[in-house]
Amino acid sequence: MSCSLLEFCWLQELKTVRDFLYQSKKTEPAEEKNQTDNELSWDTSDWESAWDGGDNKEGESTDNNKTGQSTSKDPWLQDCVVSLSPCSDLLVVAREHRAVFLSAKWRTDDSGREEMTLTVSWSGTLSSEEGECVSSAICIPLASQKRSSTGRPDWTCVVVGFTSGYVRFYTESGVLLLAQLLHEDPVLRLKCRTYEIPRHPGVTEQHEELSILYPGAMVTIDGFSLFQSLRACRNQVARAAAAGSDVIQPPPLAYKKWGLQDMDTIVDHSSVGIMTLCVFDQMKNASILGGFSASVKGSPPAMSQYVTVGAGPYTGFYYAVEGSSQPLLSHVALAVASKLTSALFSAASGWLGWNKNKTEEEAVQKQKPKVEPATPLGIRFGLPDSRRHGESICLSPCNTLAGVTDDFGRVTLLDLARGIAIRMLLYAGYRLMGVNSVTSQGWQLHTQQVCLMDPSTGALRTVNVPFHLALSDKKSEQAKDMHLVKRLTTLLKSRDVEPDILESEARSILLDIKHPAIKKQALESLLSNKNAPVSCLTNITCALHDTLKQKDPEEVDITLLQLCSSQLKLLQLYTDIHQLHSAPNVEGSTENQDSLEGIEDELSRIGPTLQHYAQHSSRPSVSFAQDSPDSPPPAQTFLSQMEVTDDGELKVIRGSEAEWNQLGNFLFWGCLCGKSPRHKVCETLQQAGISPQQLLSLLLSVWLQREKEVLQKPVESVRNLHTLLAALSNMKGAVEESWDPQSVSPWWQQVRCTCIQSHNAAAALLAALVAHRAAKASITSRADSKLQSEWEAVSLELEQWVVCVRQLEDVLVLQTLLLVPPLQGPAGGATVQCSIKTLLEGGTGGIADSVSKWVFKQSMAPERLKEILQKRENTDGDDKRHKEGEEGNEEKGQKDPDGTAELLVAVCQRFPHSLSPDLLFAHCCWEYVVQWNKDPEEGRYLCWAVEHLKLISSPHIQLGISTMMWSTFIVKRFSAAAFLMEKVGKAPKDRLCRRDVGMGDKAMTSFLGCCVQLLQVLMEADSAVEEVSAPELSVEEAWCGAEGPASIAELALDQRGVHFPLVQHHCLLASLLHAAMTFSLRVKPLSLFDSKGKNAFFRDLTTIQLMPSGDMDPGLVSLRQEFLLRVLTGWVQAIDDFSSSASGSPPLPSTGPKADWWPSMCLELGSLLQVNPDILQRHLVCELYNQGLDLRAEEVMLEVEDKDVLGSQLLVLTGQRLSYSLLHSQSQTQAAMELLARLPPTLCTWLKAMDPSELRCPLVPLPQTSRLVGRLIEMLPEKHAQYSLALHLLEAIEALTTED
């Protein structure tokens, strides 16, 4: 056994405490005071000598002589009630009716070390009833929240039990909070169970509880109820003290009271908590208690378990079923013996003797409170022992065991679930007074210990009992082995142990373990530890192996011996490989050069592509030194990845991708770099028994993973790879001597499969080139020994390699293009990683889909893509390339600074069918509309999707793509926009657009314009379908094995034809909506159509609907005409080139409200809506003149048919202009006034009746107005009623012009 005492605190005022508690005794003689300090210094020489087990009688007698005087007295502390707070910050020492509270304080000793001391904080009298004394006490720290409080407790409550039966609650300063008479017997023991997070399996969460033991009863108070009551009382005391009052009203207290029956004497108890029996125990108890015919409830009831100790029986077990007793509400007796002010004065005056005279503390006579009767609780069973008397009981932290001390000095260990004693410990020479369980902090191994108190000296014994030494049966050897395993585990966790010490101690522990299974467990634990060096693992495993070999073969465990042998083999392999990589390479690099003939030509051919690929794939990244792939893996990782089979071969365990690559780096990267001897490494691996297939997989994985380093020295790396591949191919079991002539070699098929699945295009291509050469050389060397019939298999094998290399070259060029970052802005997501496998699984449109995603990330305009694709067609012939000359090179450098166009052309040349212009435009169109659907605010995406759609030359593909776009993405938002505008009667605001359509007002305007263009493309494609045959889609010969979803073009060709009138009907509505949003017009668009027209909207375009026909209602035609006139007015107002030059009007933009196609669109709409187009033309001419755009008006005037009506309208406009110049202009000249006086009265009156405010641009140069009047005279016939008025206007304007 081992024992240790740890000092955590000092008591500085023991003499003061004793003097206060023993005031009634006479003062000690002066000659005894020197001895008192010695007595109170906790001299431990007596028990320390006994603990050491010495037999020195002389020393013992001398010791007795020295302390004879002190031992002649009774130990004063044993007569006191002592309680220490669990937080070690408050100690209560009480005797009879007095008590002293000692609080923790920190002080600095002479050496400068901080230490904790307990000093007196309060002393006084606790009893308030005559003749009562303190019989028990407990300190309970209280925190504000039981679950979330992480710091120190808020305060500590001192609970004191008295011989009168009262239980009183005090603060740390001695202020009485609550007093309760629960039973009229002395309080024997106070115990508290606090909340604790369940840390042990099978233990339920136990709630807080205070239990009070009386000779024949037990009271339990719920912790939460007690906490609330104490907090309320403490707050009332604080308020009463502040107000000078001495009366408080404490709340009632809820408790349960049990009458413990069938036990003669009870001295201690333990509340185990709530438990639930299993079904078997429930049936067992029912049959024992109720007999054969007892009934059993469906579910076991929850019960509170209580264990008592004493006599008759020695230990008793009680079970109280939950709900069998209701909580009682107490009649609280606030036993404040003195006024509150006196209590506070008592706390301030302390123990200095000022309180000896109690005349000022008059007792408050109160009526004795009512005591509730106890609920009878019979004993369930017990442990009878007539001679043994229990003295104390302590519960284990896991609530499953309890320790009981008795008057014979034994400690009995109880199993609370089964109700039996499972062990009894005997400590000779000690009479045990208490037992507890603690956890040692001074040991590296956390061990459960037992605390024993010796009543003769008051000494506290902390005894550590190692588990395996406490056993006395056959399992003690196994328990000792388990203890050694724990020691080994602790040793391996320590990082400060020197390797030599670690090896010696671990070897000693491992050899001391007896049980083979535990020894195997310890060895595996050692081999998996990363702190142990390789030499240590090898030496310990070798020592264990030698020990097992020296034993009798029949006594040796076979599995343990095999484990030692296999691990030694793996450790030796690890050491050999590590040494080979550490030693300099002395092998030559000229072997097997014949089979590499022509490889340099291949490298030079693909060299530029490799350079472009390396340039774009090398992106900066952050890495750490410990994560470097060049660093070898720990031996423990190597051992975890290898296992030895029954036949002695090694098998690599495939773990995570990172572990697999790390192992491949360790085995082969040094060889690929040329730093390690390639043949020696391969020979070592072959001798170890690893299969060539696994070695090949590891080699290819590291080759593909280290692509960046491979491309730095491609020629050297390729040669080293060829050497390793040839060496692995020559191993036994690699290339079979005779494979099926009608199939390919599984060995080379493994290489091809790896290259096909790899996303590292450059490394995969180089590996395929090397493997192709190696396979060809291997086949050539075997050709002489093969029959003629086997040449078919040979040709099939090589054909597979030709196709694979071709595909990898295509993938390399494609991947290089996909790696090109966008010129502006972020990359917009991760780069698309492609491989042969992903492209084949992507279907016939997988390649075009990848390029379309790249085009989107590049934000490449459709016209730019069209230009690049046309360049591909132009560069197909050699003559064209020679013809371009230096100018073409300079122009190419200016337009393509990063070589993007050249790369795209190269990709399209390698995929002439998969990347034909129509297929690429179709996929780009679909990619842009998909991206627009994700973010409708980006109207540019939808516009470019329509532009890509227009570039498709095949009307069949164009028609199918348009139909799919409309039905999949467009029609839902289009209908929402139409219904919203119909509801509000005008162009809706931004908020409404976002709510109903999912985009802002500006984005919705752009969306409606794209809808118009989309439907126009759809109508044009539908008209052209009959004239052109459907295209035949094909793929390249190397990629004909594609399996996967159909391409967009294939889906487009499968679409049904559309109903042209229905498409035109929707296009008409889209144009109206677009115009209303562009010019912010008030209109209800659906109200411009009759019921047939409304019902036909938003139907499937492939169906035939009942369309409007015949003459439309004049009211609807009037509404349509009014809307189109407002559109024309809005367009004219949007044009801002008010000053037309003589050379002509400036060009207008192609989009937006100023676009030049709005008038023609209105005329087309007018013809469809049964509106007279001449009315629209005349209105447009008048609006242009009104805006001062005379030149544009003259152009439109030529198309007007009814010149007479137009002349009359323009005559009024001319009069308004002249009226403004003569009558309303602020800068009227004298000549103008004289001219006005000379005008004919009829003309003068007519001019005065004109309203120039209707003109948006009244100040127009006179020559323009004169030109307008000239046009009027030409249009009006001489017999027209206003012809003479026009002549007078012309004379007036010419006169005015002459005056100016």
Automatic annotation (TrEMBL):
Which key words tag this protein in UniProt?
A: Cytoplasm, GTPase activation
Domain of life per record: Eukaryota
Q: What is the lineage of its organism?
A: Eukaryota, Metazoa, Chordata, Craniata, Vertebrata
Family designation: Belongs to the Rab3-GAP regulatory subunit family.
What is one term from the GO cellular component aspect held by the record?
A: cytoplasm
Q: Which subcellular locations apply to this protein?
A: Cytoplasm
Name a Pfam family for this protein: RAB3GAP2_C
Task: Output the InterPro entries linked to this UniProt entry.
Answer: Rab3GAP2, RAB3GAP2_C, RAB3GAP_N
GO molecular function per UniProt: GTPase activator activity
Q: Where is the segment annotated Disordered?
A: 25-72, 869-897
Q: Where is the Rab3-GAP regulatory subunit N-terminal domain?
A: 76-431
This chain belongs to which protein, by name?
RAB3 GTPase activating protein subunit 2 (non-catalytic)
Report domain Rab3GAP regulatory subunit C-terminal positions. 694-1277
Q: Does the keyword Cytoplasm apply?
A: yes
**In what ranges is there compositional bias, type Basic and acidic residues?**
25-36
